[in-house]
Design brief:
By secondary structure, this protein is mainly α. It has 11 helices and 3 strands, in the order αβααβαααβααααα. The protein starts with 7 loop residues before the first helix and ends with a helix. Belongs to the G-protein coupled receptor 1 family.
Length: 324
């Protein structure tokens, strides 16, 4: 016989309580200061990248369009978690409403799915630019770019909507204390009175399929890029071609390495990896790429570096002139 259905309205908690990072309470002040500094850099850096690309009519190549979208996604990702983390670490304000918790969960995981798709799009851009330079503008037209961006967004929404629905409809009749510093899916699902395994399997399989397919295509793109580069007769041309991909490779390493480590440690490392290590890894995975991406692209991409310098000099000149 089937048991009585769960009364979702009665078993839905009004509030969850985020622990922060269990076991590192003595370091909360330093964590709050560090996260605040990283968040400030992420906001300023990514906003500057977006401003420069949008204002400069010469930066209209597909790569810069994808980079502008990536900067916006980084701002959304960091803004979804860092303010609440800083509040927990600095003032101990750990409560978060049920709706706010699942809104945060949705934006965090959707943003990560969008970001991996953008990295794939940027890898394909580099492949076309290096392997098919004469057809670059005819292949990566504005219509193709728009289609790629819409596809990436739809994929993220399609993945996250069922996951959010499954977790938000679990019965939470026990503890409402989340052993994490944001509403991470697995940490919240473990509090349910029902079996959270379906949503956990969906999350693991969905993440593995999305990231696995993206990484496979990115690897294939770079294998073809390397074959084309090392086929060039000039060492200077080889170095120039590799240099254009350096910033992208650095950003991919920042994103995929801690990201995959965070996912599989949370799934397989329970009982062997300390909880504070799991939580700290998940936190840094969301914050570090958003902080370092604009720095890497600002330093490695000549056009952006020059435009940022020109913009800062212009602003300084205007401020000096107004002051005098």
């Amino acid at each position: 016989m089937l048991g009585p259905p769960h009364n979702h309205s009665m078993e839905t908690p009004a509030t969850f309580f985020l622990v922060g990072i269990p076991g590192l309470q003595s370091s909360y002040l330093w964590l709050a200061i560090s996260l605040s500094a990283m968040y400030t850099i992420a906001l300023l850096g990514n906003s500057l990248i977006m401003t420069v690309i949008c204002m400069d009519s010469t930066l209209r190549e597909p790569m810069f369009g994808f980079l502008c979208v990536l900067a916006a996604v980084d701002i959304v990702m960091a803004s979804s978690v860092v303010p609440k983390m800083v509040s927990i670490f600095s003032s101990g304000h750990s409560s978060i409403s049920f709706s706010a918790c699942f809104t945060q969960m949705y934006f965090v995981h959707a943003a990560t799915a969008v970001e991996t798709g953008l990295l794939l799009a940027m890898a394909l851009d580099r492949y076309v630019a290096i392997c098919k330079p004469l057809h670059y503008k005819s292949i990566l037209t504005p219509r193709v770019m728009l289609g790629m961006s819409v596809t990436i967004t739809i994929r993220a929404v399609t993945f996250m909507t069922p996951l959010s629905w499954m977790v938000s409809h679990l019965p939470f009749c026990g503890s409402h204390v989340v052993p994490h510093s944001y509403c991470e899916h697995m940490a919240v699902a473990q509090l349910a009175c029902a079996d959270p395994m379906p949503s956990r399997l969906y999350s693991l399989l969905g993440s593995s399929i999305i990231v696995g397919s993206d990484v496979t295509f990115i690897a294939a793109s770079y294998i073809l890029i390397l074959r084309a580069v090392f086929g060039l007769s000039s060492k200077n041309s080889q170095w120039k071609a590799l240099s254009t991909c350096g910033s992208h490779v650095g950003v991919m390493a920042l994103y995929y390495l801690p990201g995959m480590a965070s996912i599989y440690v949370a799934w397989l490392g329970q009982g062997t990896v300390p909880l504070h290590t799991q939580v700290l890894l998940a936190d840094l995975y969301l914050v570090i790429p958003a902080t370092l991406n604009p720095i890497i692209y600002g330093l490695r991409t000549k056009q952006i570096r020059q435009r940022i310098c020109n913009l800062l000099i212009c602003c300084l000149f205007e401020h000096t002139r107004e002051g005098s």
